[in-house]
Amino acid sequence: MPAEFELCPGRKIGGSNPCFIIAEIGQNHQGDIEIAKKMIRMAKDCGADCAKFQKSEIEHRFTKQALERPYTSPHAWGPTYGAHKHHLEFSHQQYKELQQFANDIGIFFTASGMDEMAVEFLHEISVLFFKVASADTNNIPYLEKTAKKEKLCIDGADWSSHGDGMQTMETMRCVYQTVKKHNPSFTFLQCTSAYPLPLEHVNLSLIPEFQKEFPDIPIRYSGHETGIRVSVAAVALGAKVLERHVTLDKSWKGSDHSASLEPAELAELVRAIRTVEMAMGSPIKQMLPCEASCHSKLGKSVVARKPLKKGEILALDMLTVKVAEPHGVSPENIFKLVGKKITVDLEKDATITDAMIKG
After folding, report:
1. Assign residue 14 a region: left if phi > 0, alpha if psi is -120 to 50, beta otherwise?
2. What are phi and psi of 112, to 5 degrees?
3. Separation of alpha carbons 241 and 159, rounded Å
4. Contacts of 242 (CB under 8 A, 6+ apart)
5. What average pLDDT does the structure give for the chain?
6. Which in 45, 80, 270, 351 has the greatest CB count within 10 A?
7. CA-CA distance, 317 to 43, in Å (whole number)?
8. What predicted TM-score, i.e. pTM, was given to this entire model?
């Protein structure tokens, strides 16, 4: 199977298709649905393809002890980790409202299902594809259940992407085999789970390694670094889906904001990616129409180094290369002229054309 499939209705990824850009809102909405809607609209206005959230069924994702532990971070929304997570979690009805809002303004909508019950809910509301977070990449039972889900809005095929942050290539081979037997339409992303991500740990070199290891699936990149340059480079290296966290204000409370892009940065990232995609062009090396004018003025040809007599046998010291008028034999063919007979008299600097050569 080629590394191309329909991720969302009418929108393919992989192959020569444009990079699919996901604005990861996550939980940067501060637990406020109106802020969440503003962020969806911002993602749309900036040119992103998809707005993405994170959905948890908190008691299914965390143990009671994990939820009861004190949470004293400056980013905390409550005295315990459970209170913090509950503050940031939207209800089922609110997710349906956000999904409808995204549909109304014309941007794709999805969410990471952070536990199996969250996946069931997202399946019920027919999200267009699932995102599997790094923490669940090696959660094989979860992966199998997620991979089996049918998404009718994309012709009966479910799609799961797998963050590989905190995982090894051996793990990713296991994930590939696990998912492949249930669903051929999925992709891997290169991801390093640190917020914000130091540049020396981005490891963009893994993108071509993933392409070699898994040639039949598209490869993508999830960036947690600051700025946009690395993400643009990831697309140039072949990332077919790009995910970046977004925010309306990096100074807001929350651990993800510092690794997120504000609206102006997201808009510039989208413009830069589309510019790079246009510049990638064709892998076929040939003279292009836009080069014709320059070639006409400055393209070089083989010319006579000295006067030549009709019937002479050409030697290399009789020939040189210059910008000439008219154009003649191309410089790369100069050695093919050696030993051939010239059929006309030529002055010094006269252009040599194919019609003047015998044999």
Report:
1. left
2. -80, 130
3. 13
4. 19, 20, 21, 22, 220, 221, 222, 223, 231, 234, 235, 273
5. 90
6. 270
7. 66
8. 0.84
Residue with tokens 């081979």: 173
Contacts of 5 (CB under 8 A, 6+ apart): 12, 13, 14, 157, 159, 184, 185, 218
List CB contacts of 15: < 8 A, sequence separation 6 or more. 2, 3, 4, 240
pLDDT in tens, 116-147: 999 999 999 999 998 888 888 888 898 888 88
Which tokens belong to 139? 């959660």
Q: Quick one: CA torsion of 197, 88, 8, 264, rounded to 10 degrees?
A: -50
Phi/psi region, residue 171 (left: phi>0; alpha: psi -120 to 50; beta: rest), is alpha
| pLDDT tens for each residue of 140-151 | 898 888 888 853
Q: Which two tokens stand for residue 182?
A: 């249930």
- Is residue 167 scored above 80 in pLDDT? no
What percentage of residues in the chain have a pLDDT greater than 70? 94
CA 347 from centre of chain: 58
Closest by CA position to 47, among listed 235, 224, 265, 249: 265
How sure is the predictor about 198, in pLDDT bands with cuts at 50, 70 and 90?
A: confident
Q: What is the pLDDT of residue 159?
A: 32
* 22-47 residue pLDDT tens: 999 999 999 999 999 999 999 999 99
- Residue 307 contacts by C-beta under 8 Å, 6 or more apart in sequence? 345, 346, 347, 348
Query: For residue 186, what are its two tokens?
Result: 């999925």
